[in-house]
Amino acid sequence: MLNKKLATILVFLTFASAIVGFAYAHWTKTFTIKGSVTTTELDWRLQSPSCLDDGDNENDYTCDRSWSYTQGNKDVGGPTILELVDSDGDGDNDTLEVTLQNVYPGYYERITFDVYNNGEMPLIFRKVIIGGQEFTRDQPTVSLDLNNDSKDDIKIKFADNIGGQLDPGDSFSETVHILILQGCIEGQTLTFTIQLVAENWSPQQT
Ligand SMILES: [Ca+2]
Ligand SMILES: [Ca+2]
Ligand SMILES: [Ca+2]
Ligand SMILES: [Ca+2]
Q1: Centre of ligand 3 from the C-alpha of residue 189, in Å
Q2: What is the pTM of this model?
């Protein structure tokens, strides 16, 4: 009788440890998957910035309503200073700081730079933040008041790739058009930053 009871307990214990073992294995697997997700980084960097009015004594540019530019015969503004900044200290430059010097109404500048996906996930660039203003695919052109005198000083168009997909190891070339407006006081130095906001690419989002 006692042996039978003992046998039952042994059988129960064997089952119980099998269940615990299964649960443990299951938990370990879940944990491993979570671990690998956190190491898959969403990452990009800005590189190779350039602009038109980048030289000392370089004649200034202006543009028409369709952002088509021409170079004039006087040098009052510029040169423009472009500086890449790693704002979060992760080793990748994520911000482009732009300083326009001695500008005046009608002055035009065009800035180009590359965005490189150095992470492991495809990215979608949802918006661009320039001088605190958001640029989206629906609203790529924004006027900004950079010196807070309630008059817009500058009109900016972000031309390329908002909503575009960028795969790991690939890069986009971006263009930003800048026109100084009539409301801007002559001879000002204007500084603003350009940052991109990206998210994971996934099939549901496109
Ligand atoms: Ca130049
Ligand atoms: Ca110039
Ligand atoms: Ca960074
Ligand atoms: Ca202003």
Answers
A1: 26
A2: 0.77
